[in-house]
Specification:
The complex is a heterodimer of chains A (164) and B (797). By secondary structure, chain A is an alpha+beta fold. Chain A is built from 5 helices and 5 strands, in the order ββαβββαααα. The longest helix of chain A has 16 residues, at 148-163. Helices cover 27% and strands 24% of the residues of chain B. The chains are: A alpha+beta (164), B alpha+beta (797). At the A-B interface, helix 2, helix 3 and helix 5 of A face helix 1, helix 4 and helix 17 of B. The complex binds FE2/S2 (inorganic) cluster (FES) (2 copies).
Chain lengths: 164, 797
């Protein structure tokens, strides 16, 4: 048997954090791997590679999606945002600031995905109820914090963004 | 009691923001999988589909021929070059295989061959092309069967599957049991669970045979060690460095060894190219040597008619899985340091045995064996309370060690440092409105609902300073010190650089280090920068484990600060022509004690040391940098406690069990705990809440299940259920502070406390909920199907 894994390479054009790039990828490359290895946006964390933990969450045309469940070729012509796009230089985004203020992270491995999901929520729904926050956080596993300080961080982030 | 802080504390004790957060929040931390090296190769393993089988032959020809494959290594080839995984003296010696299986596999998922290729994708393709012929053997699955003489053997070099049997008897338990007015007994099972950090374990190895040097970049909790002893032809030198972790919880220690060895050998075979292996999640669940606490208990406690516990007998059977490559079986010994929990009991028998089976090897997990033990104690206290018509809180109050009895020597020789258990329990009851909860429970019970209430208490040994006391038996009679180091330097600008000798791992150590050093020298937190060594330049350190960093790092930091301060003062004494004993450090300067007279900024002293050493007298070391290694000033060869501090906590839980589904929902969860001085209360709360979540996971959701052939049934996050925000209650936390007299600043360890107590709290509450049905859960994992079956049973009685 001969596995010719590069047979189905193809060209994709993707905008990652505002920069458009074209490159060749194998058909089977996951979007998470392409982002980490080709775009060096290593803030895309891979916790399970089977769609459960949420740590690989990115914004795909503004929608939170799991980069481990998408193929790189599916991103052709689309716009992707990763955690690297959130801060402005060394000035943290309000959501990041709120997570720091309320100790919403410990090891930080789950955090990038959570922050991106939360940013989409707060854009769509600036004054979320706890129920809505739960719905978003329910898609993310965090093994360190037990979620309480994450919940408090999201509530504070909403307040901070409203005051802005 | 006042907090023994030897300096003005502006930051210590405050919930300041963590200094490591900006790096983590922006995705910039460099985890092991983020490291790239030119020409790096990637590893995939072929893993055994069988739990127990002889390996007849390997055929790697197709895999080797695949373009992109640089090397294929079989278990048989690896065996020629390496030594068994466990080469430590002591009980476990002779009970492990190699980094990959050579002659036979002992658990499903054990690696039998490895491929190094130019990408992980190609490596996985190639691994699938390897042919291995097996002869399937009977799998040893049930630990009780495993102990029988007729059982198949996991290790042919051993006479049976029984790894060890030990009996520890204190006082006269048999007599005390005979004399008891009430005896309660029960059998319990604890589920096989694990830490499951969101980042799995990983390694990059480079073995340069020309330079005769092996480097392993890893995400280990304990960098700085050596694996040279694992090789038949070892490298001249080796170093194990560590990257920031995405969580660890004990799993990132011994579990790395098999991967380090394999990646190292592959690197040597590939002319010293870098070789990377990162476990994927399925491999982690299936085969990472990190499972824990697959335990069965038989327990029997005796009481007087007025509710005093006089004797405890606990018999433990631990299924450690297929190998002792990790230190896991030593988790049977840890309960010896808190054997009777918070209670005054003089007669105790702890009978323990461990067996090997054809399951994934066990490894360390946060709590290190105490959570199941606490669950057994607390559940039997509840049973006795019911039998005696006492309240759960009352029976505990009745048996507590009293505040005036500290330091308290337990029957096993452990010394509990300090505490006020009655007050901690009282605080929890008050905050929970316990009487109100009881009334509420009764009201809903009258409606026919299954509502449970628990009040449980636990002890958290912390600040492990040595493998002494009970652990010496495990190590074959030896003890070992667990030191910790810190380095500090000061710049000409008066800023401080602090170095810790292990990697960023999420519990906030850089932050409290900054708080302590800023307060010590009277400067702002912004003038202190903490870096974490990658162990290229190591100082002795065990790293985070055993609820130790708040204790041992605080000692190391203050030791280093004292050393630097003494040096700065000597230089200042010379410059100011003032005797050193009249000088002190405050507000970032050296000044005359009492604050009168001239002051000399610390940065200026450092500048003098660096740029004008000619101004220093000869005997002064002109180096504004110090390293200090802390070790406890205690003899290691004693029966005494390996832990310095004993934090404690009371958890109160209110749950309801759904009759129709068996599902438990947690409605209230109140915690009062005493971990001594809180360096950063928000960080303590994070540790507590995180431990609660893991305790809830173990008692309601998580479990590694094996079928009768030893086939693992929990190999994805869809089978091994990690709690999400919907499952973890938002707990109410209250602090009670009794500073430890044995530690710097009065701190006590706090990383493991909540996982010690939460399983007991949930288990006792679920059983209380089921009590009106006359059934009782013996398996500590109260997953809905298990509870539902019990409810059905009750209906059929
Ligand atoms: S890594 Fe994508 S969901 Fe877990
Ligand atoms: S902070 Fe570690 S997994 Fe969430």
């Amino acid at each position: 048997m001969n596995v010719q894994s590069d047979l189905d390479s193809r060209q994709v054009t993707v905008t990652v954090n505002g920069k458009q790039e074209s490159l060749e990828v194998e058909g089977r490359t996951t979007l998470a791997d392409m982002l980490r290895q080709e775009f060096h946006t290593q803030g895309v964390r891979v916790g399970c590679e089977h769609g459960v933990c949420g740590s690989c969450t990115i914004l795909f045309d503004g929608e939170p999606m799991r980069a481990c469940l998408l193929l790189a070729v599916q991103a052709d012509g689309h716009e992707i945002k990763t955690i690297e796009s959130m801060a402005d230089g060394n000035k943290l985004h309000e959501i990041q600031e709120a997570f720091s203020e309320k100790h919403g992270l410990q090891c930080g491995f789950c955090t990038a995905g959570i922050i991106l999901s939360v940013s989409e929520l707060l854009e769509r729904c600036p004054e979320p109820t706890d129920e809505q926050i739960y719905e978003i956080l329910g898609g993310h596993l965090c093994r360190c914090t037990g979620y309480q300080q994450i919940l408090q961080s999201v509530r504070l982030a909403a307040d901070m963004l409203l005051e802005k | 009691m006042s907090i023994p802080v030897p300096f003005k504390s502006k930051y210590v004790g405050q919930s300041v923001k963590r200094v490591e957060d900006p790096v983590l929040l922006t995705g910039r931390a460099r985890h092991i999988d983020d490291l790239e090296f030119p020409g790096m190769l990637h590893v995939a393993f072929l893993r055994s589909p069988h739990a127990h089988a002889k390996i007849i032959s390997f055929d790697v020809s197709a895999a080797s021929a695949l373009p992109g494959v640089e090397c294929v290594l079989t278990g048989a080839e690896l065996k020629e070059e390496t030594r068994p995984l466990n080469t430590m003296p002591g009980i476990a010696s002779g009970w492990s295989g190699y980094a990959m299986a050579a002659d036979k596999v002992r658990y499903a998922g054990e690696a039998v061959a490895a491929v190094a290729a130019t990408s992980r994708y190609i490596a996985e393709d190639a691994a699938e092309l390897i042919q291995v012929e097996y002869e399937i053997l009977d799998a040893v699955v049930d630990p009780e069967q495993a102990a029988l003489p007729e059982s198949a053997l996991v290790y042919e070099n051993q006479e049976s599957n029984v790894l060890f049997e030990r009996n520890y008897t204190y006082g006269e338990p048999d007599r005390a049991m005979k004399e008891a007015d009430l005896v309660v007994r029960e059998n319990y099972r604890f589920p096989r669970v694990s830490g499951n950090p969101l980042e799995t374990v990983g390694v990059i190895a480079r073995w340069d045979s020309v330079a005769d040097e092996l480097t392993c970049w890893t995400n280990t909790q304990s960098p700085g060690g050596s694996i040279r002893g694992s090789f038949v032809n070892p490298p001249g030198r080796d170093q194990i460095t560590a990257q920031p972790h995405g969580g660890s919880f004990g799993t990132k220690m011994g579990a790395l060894l098999k991967y380090e060895i394999t990646a190292a050998l592959l690197s040597r075979l590939c002319d010293g190219r870098h070789v990377k292996y990162i476990e994927d999640r399925m491999e982690h669940l299936l085969a990472s040597s990190t499972h824990a606490w697959d335990r069965r208990y038989e327990a029997e406690f005796g009481f007087t008619s007025d509710g005093r516990c006089t004797v405890m007998k606990v018999r433990l059977l631990n299924d450690v899985g297929s190998s002792c490559e990790n230190s896991a079986p030593s988790m049977c010994w840890k309960p010896l340091v808190m054997l009777t929990g918070p209670y005054k009991v003089q007669h105790f028998e702890y009978d323990m045995a461990a067996v090997v089976t054809n399951k994934t090897p066990e490894g360390a997990y946060r709590g290190y064996g105490v959570p199941p033990h606490t669950l057994v104690i607390e559940r039997l206290m509840d049973k006795a309370a019911v039998a005696l018509g006492m309240d759960a809180a009352e029976i505990r109050q009745h048996n507590f060690i009293q505040p005036d009895e500290f330091p308290y020597k337990t029957p096993t020789g452990t010394e509990y440092d300090s505490g006020d258990y009655p007050a901690v329990l009282q605080l929890a009851l008050e905050k929970a409105n316990y009487e109100g909860l009881k009334a509420e429970q009764q009201r809903r019970r009258d409606e026919g609902r299954l509502v449970g209430l628990s009040v449980v208490f636990g002890i958290e040994p912390g600040g492990v300073w040595a493998m002494t006391g009970p652990f010496r038996d495990w190590l074959g009679g030896m003890g070992a010190i667990n030191p910790e180091s810190a380095a500090i330097s000061i710049s000409a600008e008066g800023t401080f650089d602090v170095e810790l000798f292990y990697a960023l791992e999420g519990q906030g150590q850089p932050t409290f280090a900054t708080q302590i050093i800023a307060d010590y020298f009277g400067v702002t937190m912004e003038s202190v920068r903490v870096s974490q060594s990658d162990a290229r330049n190591p100082a002795p350190s065990m790293g985070p484990a055993g609820s130790r960093q708040a204790v041992v790092l605080t000692f190391a930091l203050i030791g280093a600060a004292d050393k630097l301060a003494a040096r700065l003062i000597r230089v200042a004494s010379n410059l100011l022509q003032t005797p050193a004993d009249q000088l002190e450090i405050a507000d970032g300067s050296v000044q005359l004690k009492g604050g009168q007279g001239p002051t000399l900024p610390l940065g200026q002293i450092a500048a003098t040391m660096t740029f004008r050493p000619d101004l220093l007298p000869d005997e002064i070391e002109g180096n504004p940098q110090v390293t200090y290694t802390w070790r406890a000033n205690r003899p290691v060869d004693t029966e005494g406690s390996p832990y310095l501090s004993y934090a404690n906590a009371c958890h109160v839980a209110l749950v309801e069990v759904d009759r129709a589904t068996g599902q438990t929902s947690i409605e209230r969860y109140v915690i009062a705990d005493d971990c001594g001085t809180r360096l950063n209360p928000a960080m303590v709360e994070g540790q507590v809440q995180g431990g609660v979540a893991q305790g809830i996971g173990a008692t309601l959701f998580e479990e590694y299940v094996y079928d009768e052939y030893g086939q693992p049934q929990s190999v994805t996050f869809a089978d091994y259920l990690m709690p999400s925000i919907y499952e973890v209650p938002m707990t109410e936390k209250h602090a009670f502070v009794t500073p430890s007299p044995l530690t710097a600043l009065g701190v006590k360890g706090t990383g493991e406390g909540a996982i010690h107590v939460t399983p007991a709290a949930i288990f006792c509450a679920v059983n209380d909920a089921l009590a009106p049905l006359g059934v009782e859960l013996e398996h500590a994992n109260a997953k809905p199907e298990r509870v539902w079956q019990l409810i059905q049973q009750a209906a059929n009685i």
